[in-house]
Write a structure and sequence with these properties.
- About 45% of the residues lie in helices and about 10% in strands.
- By secondary structure, it is mainly alpha-helical.
- It folds into three domains: about 240 residues, 3-Layer(aba) Sandwich (Rossmann fold), CATH 3.40.50; about 50 residues, Helicase, Ruva Protein, domain 3 (Orthogonal Bundle), CATH 1.10.8; about 100 residues, Orthogonal Bundle (Arc Repressor Mutant, subunit A).
- Helix 10 links the parallel strand 9 and strand 10.
- The longest helix has 17 residues.
- It starts with a helix and ends with a helix.
- About 0% of the residues have low confidence.
- It binds glutamic acid.
């Protein structure tokens, strides 16, 4: 791999160029993140460019949803452009390329609106009738108002007697080459006068002085066309680095139609991923740090990121019917949750509690957060882990849960009776409750674990709950006593 790709001499200028045709795809988010890391690692500039020239497919709503996703990632950019505001430049450059004889008008209606003709029509490379039309005839037909697309005149062996080989060194996939003869005469302007992706992208990349194009592997073969455009513009081609595709466990490229919401960034946000965990996870899809660590903060990622660390093989996002998210993503999220200062975590949890209609005060959330943070993997898990702190009525639970191991209903009732007396008389702080309840258990001749189970189930409505004394303190004396009385009523029929 050439050094120049990963160690630029001048600070690099990179761009993320989404087309607002849907939502922010996880693969696009990873492209954004890798560009961002490359820029920040090398003290360069991050450009955001909305590739919105496809008026039929672009929508405002989609642009908004892409920005929503990007803002959630909380990675900034330095410059922002919209291609639709730069159409005059695209057309001007297309005309300049035409004036140099490097493009020709194509009046063929069937092809007139195609961006390129490489696909469905098989081996279509160019239409000689158009490519070889005299300038006079072309000018005459254009002057008569006949619509035309402008096509690049790709250099062909038969024209010059020498077959030209196009080549470049990709920062990830290494040396690439292809005979120009195999590249079709792609469109620069469509017959409606709009620039194609190829033209607009290269004109803007040249004009914005983009030094490194880091994008999905699905654009690798477009690069040959782009090299020709840069050449026609008289601009030096940037360095290219293509990123391996993200695929589903079945090997298919991740798509919303096939794989559903797991391909959309906002799904992760709404499920309660922390952006830093999601960024960490995406980085490990197709990139490995030299130190082989997996849990990495943004600073560490920025420090470690190089294009040499990007692999060539497709990266699998693992999910299935039972596991809607990749287990590594979930594990990383739990780690990042634990690494977060409590006040920040509680701020992050608030919207999830709001959404569950608990409406707790920020103070209450701050008190609950340290009790549940080891118990949640996704932020939304906090709703089920902490609901009993916020509801006025516990959800129904099986009264049998109140009965301790090797015990019976009578024992549970004795514990609850004693607990009421203790809780009514003890200072409501952790240490006082700890001493008083342990003392009471001993007096009843029970082990602490046995005695605490009925109390825990009575106040939380479940066995699996945060540490008891802290929980009692946060719930407060009145709630605890009321819930213990209700538990006694539930137990009475079993006693
Ligand atoms: N707008 C293009 C896309 O979303 C950008 C590709 C590129 O980076 O050149 O695929």
């Amino acid at each position: 791999m050439p050094d120049s790709v990963s160690a630029p001499l001048a600070p690099p200028r990179v761009r993320f160029a989404p087309s607002p045709t849907g939502f922010l795809h996880v693969g696009s988010a990873r492209t954004f993140i890798f560009n961002w890391l490359y820029a920040r690692h090398n003290h360069g500039t991050m450009v955001l460019r909305l590739d919105d020239t496809d008026v039929e497919r672009n929508t405002e709503a989609s642009a908004r949803s892409i920005f929503d996703g990007l803002r959630w990632l909380a990675l900034d950019w330095d410059e922002e452009y919209k291609q639709s505001e730069r159409l005059a430049l695209h057309r001007h450059q297309a005309e300049a390329i035409f004036a140099k004889g490097l493009a020709y008008r194509d009046f063929t209606p069937a092809h007139a609106t195609d961006d390129d003709n490489s696909s469905a029509q098989g081996a279509w490379l160019f239409n000689p009738g158009m490519r070889e039309m005299s300038r006079e005839e072309s000018d005459r037909r254009a002057a008569s108002g006949e619509p035309f697309a402008l096509r690049y005149r790709v250099p062909r062996g038969p024209d010059s007697g020498v077959a030209r080989i196009l080549h470049f060194v990709d920062g990830v996939y290494g040396a690439q080459s292809r005979p120009a003869d195999e590249v079709e005469d792609f469109a620069l302007l469509r017959s409606d006068g709009m620039p194609t992706y190829h033209l607009a992208s290269c004109v803007d990349d040249a004009d914005l002085r983009i030094s490194h194009i880091i994008r999905g592997q699905d654009h690798l073969t477009n690069t040959y066309k782009h090299l020709l455009i840069f050449e026609a513009l008289g601009a030096a081609a940037p360095q290219f680095a293509h990123l391996p595709l993200l695929v589903a466990p079945d090997g298919a490229k991740l798509s919303k139609r096939k794989h559903g919401p797991v391909v959309s960034v906002t799904t992760y946000r709404d499920a309660g991923f922390l952006p830093q965990a999601f960024v960490n996870f995406l980085c490990l899809l197709g990139w490995s740090p030299k130190n082989d660590r997996e849990f990495l903060t943004l600073d560490e990622l920025t420090d470690l990121f190089t294009l040499e660390g990007v692999n060539r093989s497709n990266a699998v996002v693992n999910f299935n019917e039972e596991l809607p998210f990749d287990e590594k993503a979930v594990w990383l999220n739990a780690e990042h949750i634990r690494a977060l200062p409590v006040d920040e975590l509680s701020r992050r949890l608030e919207p999830f509690f709001e959404q569950a209609a608990f409406h707790p005060t920020p103070e209450k959330v701050a008190a609950v957060t340290p009790l549940i943070r080891e118990r949640i993997k996704l932020l939304r898990d906090a709703v089920s882990a902490a609901d009993f702190f916020f509801v006025s009525e516990l959800a129904p639970y099986d009264p049998a849960e109140l009965i301790p191991q090797k015990g019976d209903a009578a024992m549970a009732l004795r514990v609850l009776e004693t607990a009421q007396q203790v809780l009514a008389a003890t200072n409501f702080d952790h240490d006082s409750l700890d001493a008083a309840l342990r003392g009471a258990a001993a007096q009843l001749g029970l082990k602490a674990g046995q005695a605490f189970q009925p109390i825990r189930v009575a106040v939380c409505g479940r066995k699996n709950a945060p540490p008891l004394f802290e929980t009692l303190v946060v719930l407060g004396r009145d709630t605890c006593l009321a819930r213990i009385r209700q538990a006694e009523e539930k137990l009475a029929p079993l006693g």
